[in-house]
Amino acid sequence: MSTTPSPRPRRRPDPRCPLRPGEPCTLCQASVTGPQDCGLVYLIMDDPEAREAFAESKRRSS
Ligand code: SF4
Q1: What distances in angstroms separate CA 32 from CA 35, 36, 37, 42, 62, one per listed residue?
Q2: Confidence of residue 13 (pLDDT cuts 50, 70, 90)
């Protein structure tokens, strides 16, 4: 009986939702494949005011 060394499990990139820190992307938006094409993330990150408000809400919740 031979034991073959099991290949190291390759770490799958684990897409996290930038809007929900610590949580994985659940593809909650329609027709997205991940945070990279999530319209909501794009909206927030593209709008300095929304981004600041979002950063502020993160500061308050932590
Ligand atoms: S689809 Fe967008 S908002 Fe929804 S969990 Fe994924 S990254 Fe977050």
Answers
A1: 8, 8, 6, 12, 28
A2: low
Mean pLDDT value of segment 8-19: 77
Of 14, 16, 23, 28, best ligand 1 pocket probe by most atoms within 8 Å of the beta carbon: 28
Q: How far apart are CA 40 and CA 18, in angstroms?
A: 10
pLDDT digit string (tens) for 16-60? 999 988 899 999 999 999 999 999 999 999 999 999 999 998 888
26 lines ligand 1 (CB under 6 A): yes
* Pocket of ligand 1 contains residue 29 by CB under 6 Å: yes
Q: Where are the domains of the chain?
A: 29-62
